[in-house]
Amino acid sequence: MKKIFIDGKDGTTGLKIYKRFENRDDIELMLIDPEKRKDAKERARLINESDITFLCLPDAASVEAVSLVENDRVKIIDTSTAHRTLDGWAYGFPELSSEHRRRIKESNRIAVPGCYASGFNSIVYPLVKSGFISPDYDIICYALSGYTGAGKKGIAQYEDKDRDKELDSPRLYALAQEHKHLKEMKTVSGLSKAPIFSPIICDYPQGMVVSVPLYTDKMTKKYTPADICEMFKEHYNGSDIVKVRDLGYTTGMIGTNNFADRDDMEIEINGNDDRILITSRFDNLGKGASGAAIQCLNIAMGIDEKTGLNIGD
């Protein structure tokens, strides 16, 4: 029986993690008095009495929470941006490599990936690692997400009956190319420079598609769609959570909300011998947030990593 504390339980990701523990009998959930949720002394007590603490906080608050740790046996699973590229922190995407999985299992500091970065790295990390593209390839990425990725304030905007009509349409943002996931996308994938990244928020709650287009004549050699698909299948071989679809799996359109309330991810390779489009589809609140956090917890506990996750076909 592991003692679990969620620091920041009332946020979007915190609530999703909390609800996933309702039917689990292998953990004891430690709850803070709502009146003391910002009391550093009480938070420190619960963090240090726990076996595992989830941080579902803004970056600065997550850094502060880590500074409260005095018990060197406590595992921290942080869902913020603060620690994802730091030495000493395991990056919480076990399917990327056996080394990523080992570090999640053994580390007391685990950083849960960002939603956009999860889709991006699921595509670009294997391409760089396999040598199909060089680290200095000029990557362009665009992505569409449901509005729940915008946090509590963004959700309230979209669900307000008197909202601005602009919210009825997809909206492009991060126009200055300074999105907070860019550092993580570049560092984890192994690129030598940040990609051009164009995220789009849309008028539906959950679901995300991240897309990376490639010119085959700009790759390290001219690969066919079949070559690329085979490489991805080999990279993710054996995974029940990251699924690489066969060529021709989608013949029409790829919807962005099909994976709502799921914790798995699918990758598709489409295109022709000259131009390739690789897409990663998942739930921004599932494999892109709380689902990934729970998967990391399960690996750290040494139990089936799919425990408490909703995995489709």
Structure description:
By secondary structure, the chain is of the alpha/beta class. Helix content is 30%, strand content 21%. It has helices at 12-20, 40-49, 59-67, 98-106, 115-129, 151-158, 182-189, 225-235, 286-301; strands at residues 2-7, 27-30, 52-55, 75-78, 90-91, 109-111, 140-146, 171-172, 196-202, 208-215, 242-244, 265-271, 275-282. The protein has a seven-stranded mixed sheet. It has a six-stranded parallel sheet with strand order 2-1-3-4-6-5, sandwiched between helices. The two termini are 31 Å apart.
Structural class: alpha/beta
Report on the biggest sheet: 7 strands, mixed
Shape: globular
What gyration radius follows from the Cα positions, in whole Å?
19 Å
Q: Major sheet: order of its strands?
A: 8-9-7-10-13-12-11
Topology readout:
Blueprint: E1 2-7, H1 12-20, E2 27-30, H2 40-49, E3 52-55, H3 59-67, E4 75-78, E5 90-91, H4 98-106, E6 109-111, H5 115-129, E7 140-146, H6 151-158, E8 171-172, H7 182-189, E9 196-202, E10 208-215, H8 225-235, E11 242-244, E12 265-271, E13 275-282, H9 286-301
Parallel strand pairs: 1-2, 1-3, 3-4, 4-6, 5-6, 7-9, 11-12
Antiparallel strand pairs: 7-10, 8-9, 10-13, 12-13
Helix pairs in contact: 1-9, 4-9, 5-7
Supply the key terms.
single chain, 313 residues, alpha/beta, 7-stranded mixed β-sheet, 6-stranded parallel β-sheet, globular
What's a concise summary of this model?
The protein contains 9 helices and 13 strands.
